[in-house]
Amino acid sequence: MTRDAAAAAILDGRTALGIEFGSTRIKACLVDADDPSSVLAVGGFEWENQYRDKLWTYSLDDVWTGLQAAFADLVAVAERRHGVRPSTFGAIGVSAMMHGYLAFDEAGEQLVPFRTWRNTNTGPAASELTELFGVNIPLRWSIAHLHQAVIDAEPHVPDIRFVTTLAGYVHWRLTGEKVLGVGDASGMFPIDSATRDYDADLVGRYDALRQAQGSGTGRIPALTDLLPRVLIAGEDAGVLTAEGAALLDPTGTVAAGIPFCPPEGDAGTGMVATNAVAPRTGNVSAGTSIFAMVVLERPLATVHHELDLVTTPSGDAVAMVHCNNGASELGAWAGLFGRFAAAAGVPVDNDAVFDALFREALSGDADAGGLLAYNHLAGEPIAGLDEGRPLFVRTPDSAFTLGNFARAQLYGVFGTLALGMRVLDAEGVELDRMFAHGGLFRTAGVAQRFLAAALNAPVAVGDTASEGGAWGIAVLAAYTRAVQDASSRASLRTSVGGPASTLPEYLDQHVFAGAAIDVADPEPADVAGFTAYLDRYRAGLAVEAVAVTSL
């Protein structure tokens, strides 16, 4: 797209704005709504979670400070690149980290600090609900957080009138609508893929359980009155209010009335960003956490604690392998090496440090020379750990080289994920393609190659991979704009073959048709090496468990 054409699209509002609240960065992405593969501007703001009172949280004040900063950065970038400042958009979408617990009272006041997906204090609730539902309820799901608060008889429980996710909260404040995209909703409570809504039978079981348990919690409204209303991709999710416009853009440049797509979770936007929303496709998203999504052809045979059952943004069933710990420990080591370089009088930027470590990893032994790295900063349910202790371990006879160290750290990012993916393999789940996205894959041919070895499957990376979920939610906003131009909201619900079922076609035909895709096939030596590494990794979890209890 030429500079003049981009400027015209921005001024006319023929654009889609995606905003994603990631674990370490709030990112805004502006695309051409008619050609969402064309990214016009990107803005960002760095933020971090805090560990307070033994719970991981973010301040809601930081949510708005970060949103405004990321949006202002995007506006500045658009002006530098295209000579114009955006003041309106064809559609807006909000995405964020899934799961967690944001509870509000009748007046809309927050009752307790935001409890993020990273917390692992919900074991009793998750265990009880898994048995009650016959469906795996992970520790981080919103219903587990809510029920743990009920079990613990926390003082705020009788005052709860609304529970949502971070994306649902931001969307609510911007539009006044208490809604959630089905993909994000599937991380709050199990979804019935036939109805594209909360599973009515399981809702009834939970309400009955809560009433039976008593302890004053019967005053809480029915569960469906507490949770956001579920929407599927393409549905109308409200418009920007005057109050929302002031929250997004305190300068007053952006006016109210801009339509929104359903707010989604980072898993759903990751699927969109990698064109992995059709059966037999999957994707891996790597950041502070790392998770794999595999769109299922059929239900799984049994319940597995390693697997979540969630959905695509259109409501199709997905098996999710979610690991609380991703690339943060690798980033910490990179920071250490960067500081060493600066102390030695040869300062290098972060990207150069990562590039050097990744390239050095290619020179390492296929099994990382006997070295072992655990990236567990937080608890890791798949590994049976309530807390984390990052560890780097080697035996006296291991080959302690920089290449092996770097490879061990990269393998460690994929270690817990590989344990969960082995469960899907045993279920006979087959994949035609696995896409990867996130900053970890910016250095071409390294993390992608090692992930292919970990999964023993081809791994594709596209030229949109580094924009990640912010671009994915911008695409969903553009999709909603296209659908709303062509059909009514009712048709999405009543017609199985209607517009909602065409999200895969929309991505294939309008977004990824000309995308450059690089595919790395697993190399036999890497597969054998990673398998040996994973055997050590599994055995060494006993050391990690002792570290948790001892340190």
Automatic annotation (TrEMBL):
Q: Where is the Carbohydrate kinase FGGY N-terminal domain?
A: 16-248
Q: Which domain of life is it from?
A: Bacteria
GO terms for biological process, alphabetical: D-xylose metabolic process
Which keywords, in A-to-Z order, does the entry hold? Carbohydrate metabolism, Kinase, Transferase, Xylose metabolism
Entry-linked CDD domains: ASKHA_NBD_FGGY_BaXK-like (cd07809)
Single GO molecular function: kinase activity
Q: What sequence ranges are listed for the domain Carbohydrate kinase FGGY C-terminal? A: 283-480
Using the record for this protein, list the coiled-coil segments as residue ranges, or answer none. none
Query: Which family is it part of?
Result: Belongs to the FGGY kinase family.
What protein does this entry describe?
A: Sugar (Pentulose or hexulose) kinase
Q: Which organism is it from?
A: Microbacterium kyungheense
